[in-house]
Amino acid sequence: MKSNKSVNASKSTDRVDLPARVPDFNRHVYSVLGLPVDAVTLDDAVARLSQAVNTRHALILGTPNLNNVILSRNDSEYRDSFVFADLSIADGMPLVLASRLMGIPICQRVAGASLFQRLVDGAAGALSIFFFGGPDGIAAKAAERLNRKQGKVRCAGFLSPGFGSVLTMSGDEIIDTINHSRADMLVLALGSKKGQAWIYRNAQRITAPIVCHLGAVINFQAGSVLRAPEMLQQLGLEWLWRIKEEPSLWRRYFFDFLAFIRYFLRPAMLCAWHRRFSAPSPEDCTRARLEISIHHQTHFLRFQGGWCESNLESVRAAFTRATSQKADFVLDLGELSYGDAAFIGLLMIAYGHQLRSNRGFRILPLGSSVVKIFRRHSAEFLLDANSSGTRRRITGQES
Question: Is residue 4 one of the residues assigned to a domain?
Fold first, then answer.
């Protein structure tokens, strides 16, 4: 392993145990093209990260864009690394446009690079960063430039692990070096698939409150790649500038666009159609029912009627109660007549929490009408969670 270590890295061998991650079922999160995305502003995201640092509560930050959506379609572990994020911001403009088409209130792009720059500018107060990844020498330069500013944000350490496997980058020596720095935020730049796989494998071993993969941020911070002018960012054309800076990216953007047209535009349009013409009335939503039965450590939740953002309070409470009791989930959606992006997003939070807590999550076999609801939201993977998602099978029996 080729590595560089900042002189700021702490020599202490003490470990810091963070409070257990507790899911926030009150998040305004929605299923967008099969991944959860929070309806937050840039200021909201800064506040969430600041709170995580101040309370020392662990927070995994996801920054999904269109390329992530495409890659997650055929890679369940990669997809799950986004699903179990504690905060998921719309890093790509196509996700914002798809949200608007589907009537989801995600009104602005919150780019990971913009969020990081706000932190560097001191929006969250004093903060220490650990850079992990990037081309050889780039992390060192990013650290040097950040610390030279002598602002509220400093680099507590860095590692450039080269091009090894996720396994070789997950050794105790690396984890200890990161943890010993006592950084508040771990920023990875290992390439999207490798970086997300590393988070999936190691997030719960990291003591930094914030863990995220921000890709080009280290390059931007080091000055090796220039970020697009503000005007292009606001117009959603930053990708054109990225191609200018890194010409090899044109191929990725081109094929991502084709995949979006092929796999995701139709489901998004179907969601918009059903929201406009088939959504339940307010009266129908008030008649929706959730029945809960508990057997041993398994909570059985039976949904009836139409569920949308306006009537999810009982669902939020049920999931909060069940996770606090470390229960397995079995969901009966056989009598579900409607589920919007907020309902599916809430199921994703529950699935993600069960996944990383090694608890069970299962949806009972469904009829074709309910399966279509999940297909419209590109969330069919939730229906197969018991066999390919959560790490152990539920052993409880149905009531």
Answer: no
How far is 78 from 94, CA to CA, in rounded Å? 20
Where does a domain end: 197, 221, 245? 245
Q: What are the residues whose beta carbons fall under 8 Å from the beta carbon of 120, sequence distance 6 or more? A: 146, 149, 151, 153, 221
Q: Is 191 helix (H, G, I), strand (E, B) or coil?
A: coil
CB 318 within 8 A of CB 331: no
- Cα separation, 348 vs 354, in Å, equals 10
Using DSSP's 3-state secondary structure scheme, residue 293 falls into strand
Q: Rounded to 5 degrees, what are φ and ψ at 212?
A: -155, 155
Distance CA 26, CA 35 (A): 17
Q: Is the pLDDT of residue 251 over 50?
A: yes
Residue reference for tokens 């959606």: 333
How far is residue 303's CA from residue 280's CA, in Å, rounded to a whole number?
15
One domain for residues 92 and 228? yes
239 and 321 both lie in a single domain: no
12-26, 61-75, 152-166: range with lowest mean pLDDT = 12-26
What residues contact residue 143 under an 8 Å CB cut-off, 6+ apart?
A: 6, 8, 131, 155, 157, 158
Q: What digits encode the pLDDT tens for the residues 61-112?
A: 999 999 999 999 889 999 999 998 999 999 988 899 889 888 898 878 899 9
In the Cβ-directed half-sphere of 190, how many Cα atoms lie within 13 Å?
26
Burial (CB count within 10 angstroms: exposed 0-12, middle 13-18, buried 19+), residue 72 = buried
Q: Can you tell me the distance from the alpha carbon of 303 to that of 6, in angstroms, rounded to the nearest whole number?
A: 53
> Which residues 6+ apart lie within 8 Å of 185 measured at CB?
49, 53, 119, 127, 128, 129, 130, 208, 209, 210, 211, 212
Contact 287, 314 (CB under 8 A): no
Read off the CATH number of the domain in which 365 is found.
Answer: 3.30.750.24
Q: For the chain, how many residues are written? A: 399
Cα 130 from Cα 49, distance rounded (Å): 15
Residue appearing with tokens 């200890």: 176
Q: What is the DSSP letter of 31?
A: E
Q: What is the number of other CB atoms lying within 10 angstroms of the CB of residue 129?
A: 28
Give the number of other CB atoms < 10 A from CB of residue 267. 18
DSSP states of 380-397: GGGGGHHHHTSSS-----
> Which residues does residue 289 pair with via DSSP β-bridges, in sequence order?
304
Record the pTM.
Answer: 0.85
